[in-house]
Amino acid sequence: MIPNEIDLHKALKKHFGFTQFKGLQEGVIRSILNKENTFVIMPTGGGKSLCYQLPAIVQKGCAIVVSPLIALMKNQVDALRGISTNQGIAHVLNSSLNKGQVKQVKSDIESGITKLLYVAPESLTKDEYVAFLQKQKISFVAIDEAHCISEWGHDFRPEYRNLKNIIKKIGDVHVVGLTATATPKVQDDILKNLGIVDANTFKASFNRPNLYYDVRPKTKDIEKDIIRFVRQYKGKSGIIYCLSRKKVEAIAQVLQVNGIKAVPYHAGLDAKTRSKHQDMFLMEDIDVVVATIAFGMGIDKPDVRFVIHHDIPKSLESYYQETGRAGRDDGEGYCLAYYAYKDIEKLEKFMSGKPVAEQEIGHALLQEVVAYAETSMSRRKFLLHYFGEEFDEINGLGANMDDNSRNPKKKHEAQEDVEKILQIVQNTNEKYKSKEIVNTLIGFGNAMLKSHKTHEKSFFGLGSDKSDKYWMALLRQVLVAGLLRKEIEQYGVLKLTELGRAYIDAPSSFLMTEDHSYSEDADDSIITNVAGSGATDEKLMAMLKDLRRDLAKKRGVPPFVVFQDPSLEDMTLKYPISVEELHNIHGVGEGKAKKFGKDFVELIGKYVAENDILRPDDLVVKSTGLNSSLKLFIIQNSDRKIPLIDIAKSKGLEMPELITEIERIIYSGTKLNLDYCIDELLDEDQQEEIYDYFMEAASDKIQEALDEFDGDYDEEELRLMRIKFLSEVGN
Q1: pLDDT reading at 606 higher than 70
Q2: Residues 508, 642: one domain?
Q3: Which tens digit of pLDDT belongs to each residue from 319-350?
Q4: Separation of alpha carbons 294 and 76, rounded Å
Q5: What is the pLDDT of residue 490?
Q6: Helix, strand, coil share of the chain (percent; to 5)
Q7: Looking at the structure, do residues 233 and 119 belong to the same domain, yes or no?
Q8: What element of type H or E holds 64?
Q9: Which residue would you say has higher pLDDT here, 174 or 285?
Q10: DSSP 3-state assignment of 183?
Q11: Average pLDDT of the chain?
Q12: Using CA atoms, how far apart are residues 103 and 110, in angstroms rounded to an integer?
């Protein structure tokens, strides 16, 4: 018997304490109680789990709930046990149980105590479990996080693909599919793969009007920016997402040393630590969790006030689901993402070893992310359109709740420049990647262009009136507009699309969106207020440069060998007046502080006293010393003459990343001898030529060296020679 309306409301009040249903919940529950296949698309915070929990409790038999995460299952089972006098009302059946616990679960199901059984899809492949469940009264099967079944979903799990066959084995039961994020393509995929194309579909609006969406360019000062942002939410809860475990640990430590109560959360931590950190967040013992994407699925914390993406996610579904963990109580929810195109390129590289079909899907999803990050339209309108829902950006709920709506980006006509890009792709026979196309435009002939004799063509340097950054930004917008595509087979090679060929024949207006200018003034405003001067104290900067020049002359070395410009700029912000305080300055280590520091801190101390300057001691973003073990590892292994490529591999680093770490060691004043690997790359004359260049150069910028040598040496060779030069001359 289906409970009548009063019974349903009574059951809702009795079991969950609510007096009314939320949104589409009642319709979904009636569909399930009518024993009809049901499909529910409901955003995070919409009350999805109650849709299957209530009908399971009021019906005879036990409902099976398929879920992808053990933490998610545990969370829901604990919540259900909290509303019942009987501990056996809900159970988990997965690999974490011992034989005695499995026996108890089976006993409770047989006696009719258990109303919901949470299982991982892998558990349902075990013949003994299927045989047991065939003999029980099963009320229905619910597939939570149903997007996992689709290759086009953001969290595809191959083991979900076989669920339709397993459910048939268990018996003639109706199926409920539930997801918080699904594009129209993924929705079709779910219905087909679960064999429920006849399902009653309930789709709630994806609009979360209380969430504010903000995308900022990712700069080298991202850690400072995050600290400033989080300080505005003192005592409030937030989540920071990073793509790698290493970055999670680094950001968590940097927050901790700057007085923010934060913990890391990722799969590399043992289960006990993860559980402890999750509980600390839920119990508000800490304010911020820094996590990889696994954190937050099914965690019902309604008062998360901000979600920060340190790295842009792999798909808009992931982004939507993760931002959806903010403001579930309909209160404030600030969603801040940092975007740099090089992160997208990194994600593309990760995909390059996968099957072509998987790569195509991955690339398509990534292009949507790029389009969202670089769009100038209302971000809410863009997101909702992606999920198949239209939005009125003038009168809709939540209009004006994103950076683009409040601070519209400037646009300018770029039709002629788009024509230039497409012509160059065509004239170079569609064989180059983005970097080569840009180099052709600006007239920078690297080795690859010379080998194809591109530098001799009439179109070489056609766009030399603009910078490489401008052309790269426009090229990305041309890709998003669908005039070009990246070839999957030959990773990253640009090809003209039909749209692109049509554009060459009949060009039309193309409005290029200019990036928001997040000025450094805004970044440094906190320090500015304390120091009582501009972002850098120009008067002090001039004095420090004079001192640096004098010291460099005495030692017969270029000024950048003493301290680099970023170090001097940092001194004008932090005003260090002791050699110890110099250790907090960007790029200054113990060796450098000892060697050159005394004169600088004396000058700064005198300047501070004469100008009555209030020093920003409490606002110094302290470094964590996180790299100290890596630094020691590099020094020890280079002393043993271990090839750099082996040092990089053993620490999971790419070669450019290792060179960056070595540069940090050198710039902080430590000597390293890399002759054993440089000698294999360059002969004596070549080394001498580069060494002499750095001795005479006004700056140690690698791009200037690349321009000077015009393709004779690559970036890695020049960086290694700069390390040798600075180590011998400066340290």
Answers
A1: yes
A2: no
A3: 998 998 998 877 889 999 999 988 888 888 77
A4: 16
A5: 61
A6: 50, 10, 35
A7: no
A8: strand 62-66
A9: 174
A10: coil
A11: 84
A12: 11
Cα–Cα distance measured from residue 562 to residue 447, given in angstroms and rounded to the nearest whole number? 34
Instruction: Judge if 508 and 524 occupy the same domain.
Output: no
CA-CA distance, 497 to 246, in Å (whole number)?
A: 39
Integer Cα distance of 586 and 569 in angstroms: 9
Full-prediction pTM beyond 0.70?
A: no
Instruction: Tell me how far apart the alpha carbons of residues 312 and 318 are, in angstroms, rounded to a whole number.
Output: 10
453 versus 291: the higher-pLDDT residue is 291
Q: Quickly state the pLDDT bin for 85 (edges 50, 70, 90).
A: confident
Q: Which amino acid is at 355?
A: P
Q: What is the DSSP letter of 493?
A: B
Residue whose pair of structure tokens reads 């109580």 in the numeric block: 329
CA 192 to CA 215: how far, in whole Å? 36
- Rounded to an integer, what distance in angstroms lies between the CA atom of residue 187 and that of residue 190? 5
pLDDT reading at 567 higher than 90: no
Element (H, E) at 262: strand 262-265
Per-range mean pLDDT, top range of 227-231, 254-258, 492-496: 227-231
pLDDT of residue 731: 63
CA distance 179 to 145: 5
How far apart (Å, rounded) are the C-alpha atoms in residues 180 and 44? 6
Q: How many residues does the chain have?
A: 731
Task: Give me the CATH number covering residue 721.
Answer: 1.10.10.1390
Work out the average pLDDT over 250-275: 90
Residues 6+ apart with CB under 8 A from 453: none
Residues 463, 600, single domain; the answer is: no
- For 634, the token pair is 């590099």
Which contiguous run of DSSP H or E holds residue 41?
A: strand 38-41
Q: Scan for tokens 């070549």, then name that residue.
A: 686
Q: How far apart are CA 681 and CA 676, in angstroms?
A: 10
Residue 517 has pLDDT above 70, yes or no: no
Same domain? For 295 and 380 the reply is: yes
Backbone phi, then psi, for 504, in 5-degree steps? -60, -40
* Burial class of residue 233, CB neighbours in 10 A (0-12, 13-18, 19+): middle
**pLDDT-based confidence at 515, cuts 50/70/90?**
low
CA 337, distance to chain mean position in Å, is 8
Q: Is the separation of the CB atoms in 731 and 671 below 8 Å?
A: yes
Nearest to 12 by CA among 42, 41, 50: 50
9 neighbors 20 (Cβ within 8 angstroms): yes
Give residue 367's pLDDT: 82
Lowest mean pLDDT among 112-121, 288-297, 416-425: 288-297
Count CB-CB contacts under 10 A for residue 341. Answer: 18
HEC string of 513-524 equals: ECCCCCCHHHHC
- Higher pLDDT: 327 or 1? It is 327
Between residues 431 and 523, which one has the greater pLDDT?
431
> What are residue 212's DSSP bridge partners?
334
CA–CA gap between residue 376 and residue 514 (Å, rounded): 9
Tell me which residue of 39, 55, 174, 159 sits closest to 116, measured CA to CA: 55
Q: Is 306 exposed, middle or buried (0-12, 13-18, 19+ CB in 10 A)?
A: buried
What range does the domain containing 176 cover? 5-203
Name residue 201's beta-bridge partners: 39
609 three-class SS: helix
DSSP state of 221: T
What does the alpha-carbon distance between residue 16 and residue 258 come to, in Å, rounded to a whole number? 41
Q: What CATH number has the domain bearing residue 546?
A: 1.10.150.80
Task: Tell me how crowded residue 342 is: count the other CB atoms within 10 A of its CB.
Answer: 8
Pick from 168, 185, 203: which residue ends a domain?
A: 203
Paired sense of beta strands 116-119 and 175-179, if any:
unpaired
